[in-house]
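Chapter review: from sequence to fold.
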Amino acid sequence: LNILTCAVVGSYTLVLAVDSYVFTSLTYITLNIVKRAVNQSFSGAYTSVPFQTN
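The token string follows.
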């Protein structure tokens, strides 16, 4: 359980670090997964993600 927790926390920290320099929507993707896991009625909610043009 400790290794799994370290892997999840480490990967989330890496995503946040990459997102702060690249300015992508990786944070919104990972937060969406966490919110769906925590809240059972989250599928009915609408979250507004900023649109990114390349």
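Two observations follow directly from the output. The mean pLDDT is 77. The chain has two helices and no strands.
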